[in-house]
Specification:
Two copies of one chain form a homodimer. With 122 residues, chain A is an alpha+beta fold. Chain A has one domain (3-119): Nuclear Transport Factor 2, Chain: A. Chain A has helices at 3-23, 48-57, and strands at 32-40, 43-46, 63-75, 78-89, 95-106, 109-119. Chain A has a six-stranded mixed sheet, with helices on one face. In chain A, a hairpin with a 5-residue loop joins strand 4 (78-89) and strand 5. The longest helix of chain A has 21 residues, at 3-23. The radius of gyration of chain A is 14 Å and the shape is globular. The N and C termini of chain A lie far apart (37 Å). The A-B interface holds A 3, 37, 39, 42, 44, 68-69, 71-76, 80, 82, 84, 86, 94, 96, 98, 100, 102, 113-114, 116, 118, 120-122 and B 3, 37, 39, 42, 44, 68-69, 71-76, 80, 82, 84, 86, 94, 96, 98, 100, 102, 113-114, 116, 118, 120-122. Chains A, B: InterPro entries: NTF2, NTF2-like_dom_sf, NTF2_dom, Nuclear_transport_factor_2_euk. Chains A, B: Keywords: Cytoplasm, Nucleus, Protein transport, Transport, Viral envelope protein, Virion. Chains A, B: Pfam families: NTF2. Chains A, B: Has a role in nuclear-cytoplasmic transport of proteins and mRNAs. Chains A, B: It is found in: Cytoplasm; Nucleus.
C-alpha cells in the first residue's frame, strides 16, 4: 500500500471514530468484530458487543477528542495507527491520551482488530 | 497465546528496549529487520540500519524512560503493545510520551515490525 493511502485511511478512520464517539458511542459497533480486542485503561474486552457495552457505560454525557497527531504504518495488508491528543469530558479540564489501533481490511473498508486506550498523565 | 504470556513478553520486551535505549541505542539494531518501520515524531524510517541511524543521531547524551503503563494484545501470532510514560533527557524536565509496537515472533524471540513514537504534550 502506498504511504499516502495509508495516511489517508488512518486519518479518515480516526476522524470518523472520534466524531462517532462524541455523537453516539454505540454506533462504533460497526467497526469491531468478534475477534476484536479493546484494552481501556488496563481493562480488557473482547468482541464487538462487550467493547460497545464498555464504551457505552462510560460515565459522562459529553466527550470531545482534540487530535494532536495521527501516525500510521502498513502491515499484514492492514494499518497500524497511533493517535495522541487531548480529550475533554463534560466540563472537566482536558486530559492527554494515547490510542493505538490495528486496522484490518474487509471488503472496501477496515475493521478494528486491536485497540488500546490510555490517558497519559504524569 | 494465553493472556499471561502476552503480558509477560510485552513487559520483558519493553524493559529490555528502554534499558538498552539508555545504555547504548545502537544495540537496538538486533530488534529490527529490513521490513521494520519507525515513525519518530512524524519522521518515517524503514529498515534496521536507517532506524538505528536515526536513534543514534538523537542529540542527547543521557535518556531515561519511566514507564507508566504497558498494555498488550495478541494478533497474527504476534503482539500489539502500547506503552506510556515519561522520559527525561539530560537534565531537562520529564516529558510524557506514547510508543506503540507490533512484535512478530521469530524463532524463540520477537522482532519489531512497527514502531511509532510520540511525545504527548498539550
Amino acid at each position: 500500500m502506498d504511504p499516502a493511502q495509508v495516511s489517508t485511511v488512518a486519518t479518515e478512520f480516526t476522524q470518523f471514530y472520534y466524531k462517532t464517539f462524541s455523537a453516539d458511542r454505540s454506533q462504533l459497533h460497526s467497526l469491531y468484530r468478534d475477534q476484536s480486542m479493546l484494552t481501556f485503561e488496563g481493562q480488557q474486552f473482547q468482541g464487538a458487543s462487550k467493547i460497545i457495552e464498555k464504551l457505552a457505560s462510560l460515565p459522562f454525557q459529553k466527550v470531545l477528542h482534540q487530535i494532536s497527531t495521527i501516525d500510521a504504518q502498513p502491515n499484514f495488508n492492514g494499518i497500524f495507527v497511533c493517535v495522541t491528543g487531548a480529550l475533554q469530558v463534560d466540563e472537566d479540564a482536558p486530559q492527554r491520551f494515547a490510542q493505538a489501533f490495528q486496522l484490518i481490511p474487509e471488503g472496501t473498508s477496515y475493521y478494528v482488530l486491536n485497540d488500546i486506550f490510555r490517558l497519559n498523565y504524569g
